[in-house]
What does this fold into?
Amino acid sequence: MAVKVRGIQLTTVRQPLKNPFKTVLQQVEEREVIVVAVTGDTGLIGYGECVAFETPWYTEETITGCRFVLEQVLEPLLANKTIENPQDVWELFGAVKGNRMAKAAVEMAVWDLFAKQQEMPLWKFVGGSGDPIPAGVVVAAAPSKIAEQVAQAAESGYRRVKIKIQPDMDITLLKSVVAAYPGLQFFADANGSFQAYGVERLKAFDEVGFTLIEQPFSERQWTLHTQATKELSTKICLDESIACVEDVQQMIDSRAGDIIVLKMSRLGGWTETLKVVELCQTHSIGMWVGGMIEFGVSKAHNLALASLPGIVYPGDLSASRHFWEKDIIEPEIIVESGEIVLSDRPGIGYRVV
Ligand code: OSB
Ligand code: MG
It folds into this structure.
């Protein structure tokens, strides 16, 4: 069942975070995203969310650059087109280099629209199971606040906590936090901050008790990641290094990591992400779904992704109220007994308000 594109609408959403999100590279206090709405000839609307940041600290893209690319480059390519399969959007944008986060926002809206047209929840449309999704949260705070924020996460029922780490951190503090919650699973995310230190410094974190350490070195430092994968007993997980399916192949060939974190925005949308999922399954590479401090549209797509077979670790999948006073979707996403129940409604399963 083809979709004829009748309209494309871009809406900027800007909200302060409830608590500042502190990483080694950037402190995020306010978030701006662009919600992409694609209307089909049946009148149904699919939604995507462009989650590039204000400055290029996480990826090369920025929200201002994405707005330009969305308005001036991608919108004209999609306008009035008849799309036979959602996978065709990637080819439609084939002459546009890079700009994966901008492309992802449009592409995800088209996938939502196709699922809605077939009156199917997106998770079912992409081949997921309907089981509740284990929730996870990220602690991105000054060292003096880590223990308190982990306690809050445990209190709220989260089963997995990801702590942002950097080379100068107090290992004793991290060890005591992890040891205090035997029922919680802990991940660490370095956002490339060990790039000037090498593997020796990273080894000190091997004894903390993390399930995995995400992206210790910068995105092109394959050799250091290979060395870390070999020399640490904690599993190494790649985030920023993985922008496409070829990067996953590179990781496998060079044994530069054990696990990958999926982010549809970084990968350019569903089509590329599903290719990555398939490749990881073939090679028994563990996967989980990462967050981008995003609003409900993006979160809803992430939940559908997390329902796929092969997603074996809990993701950065938190409640709407974790970051926001009020999310842009209804009903809001809630975490109960450490899980998020998938919506049975068509497409992303939430109304955009
Ligand atoms: O490195 O995983 C990351 C947020 C923004 C940019 C990069 C990252 C993050 C997170 C996830 O750590 C935060 C979330 O739960 O949304
Ligand atoms: Mg990360």
User: Anything to note?
Assistant: Residues 225 and 256 are 5 Å apart (CA to CA). The mean pLDDT is 97.
